[in-house]
């Protein structure tokens, strides 16, 4: 083999050094961001219980899984957390009591869903909602690994006759304590993960709701209102906005399940799964579900 010319070898070494330097800079900025954001293991008060217990009928059993966004990190009262808001909202929409069980954990990654589901199946859930992905991005878990694990989790729940709605990875580009260029990288990776999550969830028989593309612009525009004191996790208003786009999909899943897969609304468009995932990425508030060998894209609600 002929030796590389000195100029080419020097350029290769220089490029490698530049890449290492860039990665080192990103790592340093991530440490700065973590110090600026802060983190504790504190959980808000448990929101487990029956909501709408004055309504008739068998309670809908609802399982809440995922990370701090599903827990309601930063809230000091149970009613201000997503599990409680989901229970209240779903009971109102379905006109039935809702029995909520939350097993979401602050700091959870997608590979932690297995343990959460092991415990959650004892609840015999009718519907499960999952919000996951942020910690996979911050811990640099490859998106193909995270999405594969998520698909496996959704299949387990579907096999247990449980409807599944997944709020895909939020847009981390809206988190201002993360400095540039790390914030740009975080935005790109979180959006890429959300697309892979959408495809994995739908292929496994669940419904995916784009939180990043839907909530990102709203959170960025109304930053002081939507984020909590740590400037990383949502405020009560931010959590409420997130829940408001998950509950309609949960209700639709339950209604279609009770009709044994009755046909959906005429506003749906049949697409290939990859096309539907791309469509969801371009159009805020799009829910993607499976329709036979195809996928459907339906915009139920726009955040405000």
UniProtKB/TrEMBL annotation:
Gene Ontology molecular-function annotations: phosphatidylcholine lysophospholipase activity
Name the UniProt key words of this record, in alphabetical order.
Hydrolase
By its UniProt entry, which CDD domains does this protein fall under?
FeeA_FeeB_like
* Keyword Hydrolase appears in the UniProt entry: yes
| Family annotation (InterPro entries) | Ester_Hydrolysis_Enzymes, SGNH_hydro, SGNH_hydro_sf
- A Pfam family it matches: Lipase_GDSL_2
Biased composition range(s): Basic and acidic residues:
284-293
Q: Where is this region: Disordered?
A: 276-295
SGNH hydrolase-type esterase domain segment(s): 64-240
What the entry lists under SUPFAM superfamilies is as follows: SGNH hydrolase
**Could you identify this protein by its name?**
SGNH/GDSL hydrolase family protein
Species annotation? Aeromicrobium terrae
């Amino acid at each position: 083999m002929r030796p590389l010319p000195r100029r080419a070898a020097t350029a290769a070494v220089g490029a490698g050094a530049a890449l290492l330097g860039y990665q080192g800079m990103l790592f340093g900025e991530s440490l700065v961001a973590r110090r600026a954001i802060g983190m504790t293991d504190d959980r808000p008060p448990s929101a487990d219980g029956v909501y709408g217990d004055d309504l008739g009928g068998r309670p809908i059993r609802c399982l809440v899984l995922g990370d701090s966004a599903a827990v309601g990190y930063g809230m000091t009262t149970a009613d201000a957390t997503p599990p409680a808001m989901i229970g209240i909202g779903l009971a109102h929409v379905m006109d039935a009591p809702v029995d909520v069980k939350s097993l979401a954990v602050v700091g959870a990654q997608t590979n932690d869903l297995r343990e959460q589901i092991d415990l959650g199946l004892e609840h015999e859930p009718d519907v499960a909602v999952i919000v996951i992905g942020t910690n996979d991005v911050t811990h640099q878990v490859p998106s193909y690994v995270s999405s594969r694990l998520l698909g496996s989790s959704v299949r387990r729940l579907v096999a247990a006759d449980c409807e599944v709605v997944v709020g895909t990875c939020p847009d981390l580009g809206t988190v201002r304590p993360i400095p540039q260029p790390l914030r740009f990288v975080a935005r790109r990776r979180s959006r890429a993960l959300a697309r892979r999550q959408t495809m994995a969830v739908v292929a496994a028989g669940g419904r995916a709701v784009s939180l990043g593309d839907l909530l990102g612009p709203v959170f960025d525009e109304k930053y002081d209102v939507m984020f909590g004191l740590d400037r990383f996790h949502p405020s009560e208003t931010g959590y409420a906005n997130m829940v408001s786009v998950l509950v309609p999909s949960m209700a639709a899943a339950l209604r279609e399940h009770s009709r044994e897969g009755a046909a959906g609304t005429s506003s749906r468009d049949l697409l290939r799964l990859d096309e539907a995932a791309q469509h969801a990425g371009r159009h805020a508030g799009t829910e993607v579900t499976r329709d036979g060998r195809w996928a459907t894209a339906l915009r139920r609600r726009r955040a405000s």
